[in-house]
């Protein structure tokens, strides 16, 4: 259908199998949206927490990755877990330098708005797409009822936080949430407003102080994947 579009993911446990599966999912998404693109995905096996603490190191890594990606002229990059609009702008500027022009199709998607890009995170586009998919399943009668549905959010970040707020506004109960360091579980429901307040503070969800039934450290947060719920994000 055209060039491959997909995000660049930073994680310590990336595998080729996972990247292939994610690229396939992007193919389906772009096709469903009738976009003239195929699906793609790129990734770096690194510790995203370390990259967040060392912005200079991350900038150097992205610069090297931009150089490695340049020969693949059918891939258009985008932000994903661990990468931002600033990182994609960095790649775009490298491509501009190599091509000798600022006007080209070697994107990427989701660059800084000040440079003509789309603020994917600020507009909560990924979360909105996911919310729309869940609402559609409810409307089509696939057994999902948002009012009273128990929701677990693994990764309470730029996608997890807004999707939690959207589902909560429809009457769902956020019973579990986690970030890279802390997991929270309470069958009576977590306080979404407090989750949103603390998620960007130093320590993240560790600073959630309301009563919870269970609290986990970084080595145990995957328990939430097995927790009883109706919707797992």
TrEMBL record:
Glutamate/phenylalanine/leucine/valine/L-tryptophan dehydrogenase dimerisation domain ranges (all copies): 1-93
Residue ranges of every copy of the Glutamate/phenylalanine/leucine/valine/L-tryptophan dehydrogenase C-terminal domain listed in the record: 116-233
A GO term, aspect molecular function: glutamate dehydrogenase (NAD+) activity
InterPro entries: Aminoacid_DH-like_N_sf, Glu/Leu/Phe/Val/Trp_DH, Glu/Leu/Phe/Val/Trp_DH_C, Glu/Leu/Phe/Val/Trp_DH_dimer, Glu/Leu/Phe/Val_DH_AS, NAD(P)-bd_dom_sf
Entries under PROSITE patterns matching the protein: GLFV_DEHYDROGENASE
UniProt-listed GO biological process terms: L-glutamate catabolic process
SUPFAM superfamilies: Aminoacid dehydrogenase-like, N-terminal domain, NAD(P)-binding Rossmann-fold domains
Signal peptide span: none
Entry keyword annotation includes Glycoprotein: no
Record has Magnesium as a keyword: no
Matching Pfam families: ELFV_dehydrog, ELFV_dehydrog_N
Keyword tags: Oxidoreductase
PANTHER family, A to Z: GLUTAMATE DEHYDROGENASE, GLUTAMATE DEHYDROGENASE 1, MITOCHONDRIAL
Family from the record: Belongs to the Glu/Leu/Phe/Val dehydrogenases family.
Protein name per Swiss-Prot or TrEMBL: Uncharacterized protein
Provenance organism: marine metagenome
